[in-house]
Amino acid sequence: MRVLVLNGPNLGRLGKRQPEIYGHTTYAQLVALCVEWGRDLGLEVEVRQTNHEGELVDWLNVAADEHTPVVLNAAAFTHYSYAVYDACAQLEAPLVEVHLSDPFTRPEEWRHTSVVSPHAVRVIAGKGVDGYREALAAIAGS
Ligand code: DQA
Q: Which residue range is the domain that position 89 belongs to?
C-alpha cells in the first residue's frame, strides 16, 4: 500500500526550529525514519514538505483522486486553512492527523482548533517523531 506523509509550513527546518518544542530530529532524519517504519509495516511511504498552502491542497487533491491514504501534519495551516479543510473532506482513504507537539494544549488559543481533525480517523499529538510511526501503523492496520 502506498502512503503519503505530507508536512506543512516550517517543518522543513525540523531539528533547527525551536527544538525545545519540536525536538532535535532533522527533517531529513524524519523522512528516512518514515520510509523505514513504512517498509517494516509493508507500506510504500513517500514524504513531502511544503511551505505553500496551494501545493498542499494540490497534493491532497491527487491523493483523493488516487485513493491514497495520508498522514498529515499541516502545521500552522491546521488551525485556519479552510482550503485544507475542504481538501481533507474529499479524501476517502484513511487520513491520520499528526503533530509533533500537542497544539491543543499549547498556550496559543488559535492552536486549539484543527480543520483536519473532523476528517481524520485518528489524531496523534505530542509524541514527537514517534507520532509518525504510530500514524503509519494506524494506516497499516486500517
Ligand atoms: C505542529 C503544531 C502547529 O501548531 C504548528 O503551527 C506547527 C507544527 C506540530 O507538529 O506540533 O508548525 O503541527
A: 2-141
